[in-house]
Amino acid sequence: MPTDCIPWAFPLEWMRAVVAIRHAIHRTDINGAFVLTVALVIAPHPDDEVLGVGGTILRHLAHGDEVHVAIGTKGEEERFGKEQVDRVQAEARAVHKFLRVSGSHFLDLPAAMLDSVPGAEVNAALKQVVDAVRPDTVYLPHPGDIHKDHLVIFQAAMVCCRPVGDWYPRRILSYETVSETDWHAAPITPAFVPNVFIDISPHIAKKLEACAMYASQIRPAPDQRSLEAIRALSVARGTAMNMPHAEAFMLIREILSSGQSARGSGP
Known about the structure:
- It is a single chain.
- Helices cover 38% and strands 18% of the residues.
- It contains 8 helices and 8 strands.
- Helix 4 (82-99) runs antiparallel to helix 7, helix 5 crosses helix 6 and helix 7 packs antiparallel against helix 8 (227-239).
- An 8-stranded mixed β-sheet has the order 1-4-3-2-5-6-8-7, sandwiched between helices.
- It has one domain: LmbE-like (Rossmann fold), CATH 3.40.50.
- By secondary structure, it is α/β, with parallel strands linked by helices.
- The two termini are 31 Å apart.
């Protein structure tokens, strides 16, 4: 499957060389741990990345971290119409430019049809991005979301991020997506029970602005995909931990090697 990288597109071998140099020159703390983080946000569809992780993306970038976004799917023109497909793709590119992410990667797998794609094909497409970016921290959709694409992407990402070999992501978190995470059948299905809360108070206005740029996806209140609902969720998650606004996550895995501090693991 094609991988499109914004603001530029380079062969994967070239990108891997750049990654190796980048890791070699990153600042380290007294224990030799990376101070700066390379984060990869994996989203099944355009807009999932800002709904679930928009404020945290901005926080990473404000700290000088490198943030890549991988969008797993693209709508099929036969199902959604060329005009709608092109509009959503254009919105995603505009949002990522607005956020100033380090790179955007579009896998172009068929939206709302991932359960019909061979697992090996999904894994291979995503592994190209993971191997090229070599993130320290990975953000994934919640496996209990009602949309099957979210589960397929989660499972593929976990395959790509297995702790084997001389490199693998050290921190993996899952995020919530309004209208997907809340609308399944928890606790019969996996429930989203957050145990990590990231303060996004300085970034909530820009997150909401980015969400609004997905005009094809935003709905009027009280729809869960309204700006009012997105802001309300950030208030609920934040005030639960004595902060004005927060995004909530479930920590899937965190690995601290010998002599490594947790400082380089997150925002």
